[in-house]
Amino acid sequence: MSTNLTKREIVLEIYKKTNFPQKQVVETVQRTLDIIQNALAAGRNVELRNFGVLEVQVRKQRIGRNPNKPEAEVVIPQRAVVKFKSGKILKQQLAKIDLAKLSPPPAPPAA
Questions:
Q1: What is the pTM of this model?
Q2: DSSP per position, 36-70
Q3: Among residues 6, 14, 47, 65, which one has the fewest Cβ atoms lying within 10 Å of its Cβ?
């Protein structure tokens, strides 16, 4: 399985392809992320054509259980969450992934 993509890697990739000053690329990437974050925090959905949509949804209040004390019920309050729906091109690219490479390794046999 590959490692996660970081903001730093995004900056370096843009820098290599554009030769814009790294400081300018860092500021542009950060401003882009700030705009997306502020829109979501204001309850707005973010649509990025062919990539996907970040949607703000409300999760209902529910009863949960503490795994360490399963006899005790815990109220999980209503809250806002962000859901991602992939766009057409991303869906097409995901369909081509070798799923065997993404699968976790099998668990060792119990002794």
A1: 0.75
A2: HHHHHHTT--EEETTTEEEEEEEEPPEEEEETTEE
A3: 6
Rounded-to-integer distance, Cα 94 and Cα 89, Å? 9
Alpha-carbon span 64 to 73, nearest angstrom: 6
Instruction: Name the amino acid, one letter, at 100.
Output: A
Q: What is the pLDDT of residue 1?
A: 45
The third-level CATH classification (topology) of the domain covering 47-97 is HU Protein; Chain A (4.10.520)
53 Cβ contact partners less than 8 Å away, ≥ 6 residues apart: 45, 46, 47, 84, 85, 87
Q: What share of the chain is helix, strand, coil (3-state, %, to 5)?
A: 40, 30, 30
Across the chain, mean pLDDT equals 90
Break the chain into its structural domains and give their ranges. Answer: 1-44, 47-97
